[in-house]
Write a structure and sequence with these properties.
Structural class: alpha/beta
Order of helices and strands: EHHEHEHEHEHEHEHEHHHEHEEEH
Number of strands: 12
Radius of gyration: 21 Å
Length: 345
C-alpha cells in the first residue's frame, strides 16, 4: 500500500543520530530541570525566529497548534476559520467558548464573515495550506495587513513553511505553527508570535508548557544543522514526488495539474461518475468520496476524504510525505485513468 494519507516519513539516519546527540546534550544541562521557562527555551526561540524570520522577543513556545488556539478562543468571542483547513483546531476553538464561523478566503479577505474587529480572530493557513496547498498571494497579504490595521486579530498558521519557503508573516498578523509536520505528533511543540502573545497566553502556559529539556533538544537540533539535513533528505523527497506526479500527468496524460505549495494537494472528484440514475439527483459528497477512497485503496493507494477539511467540493487529499518519485508516478497514472476524478480529458 502506498500511503498518501499524511503520515510523516522517518528521518534519515544522520538526522536521527544528530537528534539523539542533542537530546543527550540537553539532558546534561542541570538548570533545564529546575528553572522554569514560561516563554519558552531561549535556544529554541532563537532557532525558530531565525528560520521563520520572526522576532525571538515576540515568540512564545506552546505545546502544539491546538494549545495556541486555546488562547485566542479564550480571549475573543468570534473566530472566523478558513475553509478548507486542518480540522484539529475547530473543536478547540468552539470548546473554549468562541463562536466559530467558517469562511472561504474570498469571503474572509473581503471582510464578509461578520464579527466586530476588536473581538474577532481571522484564522488562515499560509504557505501551503492543508489540504489544498494554497498560499497567500502578494495581494492577499496586503489585504491581510489591511484587516489587521482595521482591528481584526489575524492569525496565520505557518506550519508548512518548512516545505515551501517563507515570505514572512503578513504585516500586523500573528504567526502560529507546529513542529509536528517535521516528525509527527511526538514533536509536541508549537509556537505563537506577535506583540503581547506571551502575556495573553500566560494562563495556558501555566499548565501546558513543554519540558524545557525537550525544547532545548529541539533548539540544539535546529541550530546544529538538523533542519538542513531534513531539507536535503525528507523535504527534498516531497518536492521530487510532487514534481514527478505533476510531470507524469502532463507528459503521459495531457493533464495540467495546478501547482501547489507544501506536501498536500486536492484531487477533485466528478459527481457524474458515481453511477446513480439521473432522476435520483446528485450523489452526496460522502458517498462520492467513500466510493473513490475504496477504489483507490483497491489499486494500492491510501488517501483521505476532503470533507474532513470542510472542502467546498468532493475531493480526495493526497499528501506526498515519504513517497518516492516512482510511487508518485504510479499514483498519477491511477488518478488519470480513474473514472471518478475530474481531471480526465
Amino acid at each position: 500500500m502506498i500511503d498518501l494519507s499524511g503520515s510523516p516519513a522517518p528521518w534519515p539516519d544522520e538526522a536521527t543520530r544528530l537528534w539523539a546527540d542533542r537530546v543527550a546534550q540537553a539532558a546534561r544541562q542541570a538548570d533545564l530541570w529546575t528553572v522554569p521557562a514560561p516563554r519558552g527555551d531561549e535556544v529554541l526561540r532563537e532557532a525558530l525566529a531565525d528560520q521563520l524570520g520572526l522576532s525571538a522577543e515576540q515568540l512564545t513556545i506552546t505545546a502544539s497548534l491546538r494549545a495556541t488556539a486555546l488562547t485566542y478562543a479564550r480571549r475573543f468571542g468570534h473566530v472566523v476559520l478558513e475553509r478548507p483547513t486542518y480540522p484539529g483546531v475547530l473543536p478547540v476553538l468552539a470548546g473554549a467558548g468562541a463562536t466559530v464561523t467558517r469562511a472561504s478566503w474570498d469571503e474572509l479577505l473581503k471582510g464578509a464573515a461578520g464579527g466586530e474587529p476588536g473581538d474577532t480572530v481571522l484564522w488562515l493557513t499560509s504557505p501551503g495550506r492543508n489540504p489544498d496547498g494554497r498560499t497567500l498571494t502578494d495581494q492577499d497579504r496586503r489585504r491581510v495587513a489591511e484587516l489587521a490595521a482595521e482591528g481584526y486579530r489575524v492569525v496565520v498558521n505557518e506550519t508548512y513553511a518548512w516545505f515551501c519557503g517563507h515570505a514572512g508573516t503578513p504585516a500586523g498578523a500573528d504567526s502560529a505553527g507546529t513542529l509536528h509536520k517535521l516528525r509527527g505528533v511526538g514533536a509536541r511543540l508549537g509556537w505563537m508570535a506577535g506583540p503581547g502573545c506571551f502575556e495573553e497566553a500566560f494562563p495556558e502556559l501555566l499548565g501546558t508548557p513543554p519540558s524545557p529539556v525537550w525544547q532545548r533538544a529541539w533548539g540544539l537540533f535546529l541550530q546544529g544543522g538538523g533542519l538542513d539535513l531534513l531539507r536535503a533528505g525528507l523535504l527534498a523527497e516531497v518536492d521530487d514526488a510532487k514534481a514527478a506526479f505533476r510531470d507524469r500527468l502532463a507528459s503521459a496524460h495531457g493533464i495540467a495539474f495546478p501547482a501547489f505549495d507544501g506536501p498536500n494537494a486536492l484531487i477533485p472528484l466528478a459527481p457524474e461518475a458515481a453511477g446513480a440514475p439521473p432522476e435520483s439527483g446528485p450523489p452526496a459528497t460522502e458517498q462520492l468520496e467513500e466510493d473513490a477512497l475504496a477504489a483507490f485503496r483497491e489499486e494500492g493507494f491510501e488517501v483521505v476524504a476532503a470533507r474532513h477539511f470542510d472542502a467546498a467540493q468532493p475531493a480526495l487529499r493526497a499528501t506526498f510525505f515519504g513517497v518516492g518519485a516512482a510511487e508518485a508516478i504510479r499514483f498519477a497514472d491511477a488518478v488519470a485513468r480513474s473514472p471518478r476524478t475530474a481531471l480526465r480529458l
